[in-house]
Amino acid sequence: MRLFECGTLVPGCEWHTRADNDAEVVRRTVEHLRTAHGETVIRENMVENIKARIVDEKVSA
Fold first, then answer.
1. Which pLDDT belongs to residue 60?
2. Is the pTM of this model over 0.85?
3. Residues 6+ apart with CB under 8 A from 25
4. Contact present, 37 and 7 (Cβ < 8 Å)
5. Contact, 28 vs 19, CB < 8 A?
6. What is the pLDDT of residues 9-52, one digit of tens each?
7. Contact predicate 30/48, CB 8 Å
8. Are residues 6 and 15 in contact, defined by beta-carbon separation less than 8 angstroms?
9. Has residue 61 got a pLDDT over 80?
10. Nearest one of 2, 55, 4 to 33, comparing CA atoms
11. Sign of CA dihedral 3, 56, 23, 11
12. C-beta of residue 25 within 8 angstroms of C-beta of residue 37
């Protein structure tokens, strides 16, 4: 499972999402940035910043 935590990009934001693949994580994150943070234009460098912060979710045993 892949995980993105918005606070790594927008300090103080507690929102996070997880999905099986990076494309879905990016899609959900872009939607979140539009609705929660008022972003109207998502530039390529923002998508790259999102991708750089997607991590494998740690699985607890």
1. 75
2. yes
3. 2, 3, 4, 17, 18, 19, 50, 54
4. no
5. yes
6. 999 999 999 999 999 999 999 999 999 999 999 999 999 999 99
7. no
8. yes
9. no
10. 4
11. positive
12. no
Question: What's the one-letter identity of residue 26?
Answer: V
Task: Quote the mean pLDDT of the chain.
Answer: 96
Which amino acid is present at 37?
A: H
Q: At what angle do helices 22-37 and 44-52 cross, to 10 degrees?
A: 120
Question: Of 56, 46, 1, whose CA–CA distance to 26 is shortest?
Answer: 46
Tally Cβ neighbours within 10 Å of residue 56: 8
Which tokens go with 29? 């994150």
Look up residue 16 and give its two tokens: 């996070």
